[in-house]
Amino acid sequence: MMVKAVLDTAFVRAQFAPLADGWVFVENAGGTYVPRQVVDRVQEYMSQTQVQPNWGFASSERATERIRHGKQLMAEFINAEPDEIVFGPSTTMNVYLLAQAIRPWLKQGDEIIVTEQDHEANVGAWRRLAEFGVVIKEWQVDRATGALRYEMLDELLSDKTRLVAFTHCSNVCSIVHDAAALVRKIHDAGALAFIDGTAYAPHFSVDVKALDVDFYVCSLYKFCGPHQSILYGKRDLLRKAANQNHHFITDDNISYKLLPGGPNHEFAAGAVGVADYYDALHDHHFKTRENNFHARLTKVYGLIAAHEERLAARLTAYLNTVPGIQIIGRVPSSDGRLAPVIGFRVAGRSSAEIVRELNKRQIAIGHGDFWAARVIKAMGMTAEEGVIRIGFAHYNDDADADRLIAALKEVL
Q1: What's the DSSP call for residue 182?
Q2: What is the four-CA torsion angle of 83, 98, 210, 207, rounded to 10 degrees?
Q3: What CATH class is the domain 41-273?
Q4: How many CA atoms lie less than 13 Å away from 348 in the CB half-sphere?
Q5: Which one, 187, 234, 240, 341, has the greatest CB density within 10 A?
Q6: So what's the pLDDT on residue 108?
Q7: How large is the angle between the packed helices 36-48 and 58-77, nearest 10 degrees?
Q8: pTM of the model
């Protein structure tokens, strides 16, 4: 098979049944459709092995293996080891449980830095530790652009800083941060680094080892998987974390001590379908097949990023011609990349009214603060109106972009 230099969107779209409904779906930043491979894996688990795993009878053994396989592949997805990740129902819950698990490490007066740009999932749980005497410092954004003020991190870091939590990519400003450089700065200050990669992982390959990050979290349902999240932590740190489950769960049982009740079994098994899907993309586009799933994934993400960047460029080029439009963020950091997520508002127009008109034209889109309320407020907007957000996924094609721009021309 010859290498295809560009993403074959016809092949991609054939994997997603919902794309045949006649709508242009561009609320992908909130969650993507799932391909048939994921549906098949969940259905297979539920129809054949919907039993408690870890027993000796045949169906339980198959269930155990399918769950184990899903965890292994999702660890490989971010270049981690299976015992370094925890499945959870959401990023919000994973961050909350981790914050409570490391709370015993902190004493009154210790400092945690959070950003004003983040989704609340990576802000609220850390802020709650103020109840226990932890000092929360806020890393603020530029009021005009929504970009993090990089010089401010140096001012905030101190010998009392214990952890800095920041987003790999903003879910409304689309700014990708040079995470590796920030982690180095944080480590130099003697603190731990926690990254929320939920808005990053759908568009770019994640390598937690290359980042040298202490903790990393992302949501599978943002990159074509079931509605669950994975939390990564360096092994020694996760072993030290306090048990959040039943009293008899041992400290070295990382998967269970940081997930009360255990994982969603069918979705853990369904995660195998995520790898099935990306491998199908790899084998369709590339002649040779590496043995390492993360290496195959990285090649696929190269095609995905180039395709999504082109669609985002088309849309922003049009929006820049419309009087009264303010595009939110999209100020490249030193990383130089931007996610294909475009948030904007129109002077003198209601975001809600514009979205209603677009919905009438079968454009699936939303508006609001998208749970990044602090950056929306910092830029002088209200949560109720917020911004209109267009989030491309790799299964969007030129026809989607044509219909979207045509609809915008009618409405704006």
Answers
A1: H
A2: 70
A3: alpha beta
A4: 3
A5: 341
A6: 97
A7: 150
A8: 0.97
Q: Which residue has the tokens 């997520």?
A: 341
Structure tokens given for 22: 């006649």
The full set of domain ranges for the chain reads: 9-34+294-411, 41-273
> How far is Cα 143 from Cα 139, in angstroms, rounded to an integer?
12
State the DSSP code for 2: P
Identify the H or E element spanning 366. strand 366-368
- What is the distance between the alpha carbons of residues 262 and 248, in angstroms, rounded to a whole number? 14
- C-alpha R_g of the chain: 21
Q: How far is CA 123 from the centre of its chain?
A: 15
Which of left, alpha, beta for 54 (phi over 0: left; psi -120 to 50: alpha)? left
62/296 Cα distance (integer angstroms): 27
For residue 4, the model assigns a pLDDT of: 58
CA-nearest of 395, 377, 397 to 387 is 377
Determine the topology of domain 9-34+294-411 in CATH: Aspartate Aminotransferase, domain 1 (3.90.1150)
pLDDT of residue 255: 87
Backbone angles phi, psi at 186, to 5 degrees: -65, -45
Q: Which residues in the chain come in under a pLDDT of 50?
A: 1-2
Q: How far apart are CA 92 and CA 300, in angstroms?
A: 28
Q: Report CA torsion sign: 209, 306, 231, 63.
A: negative
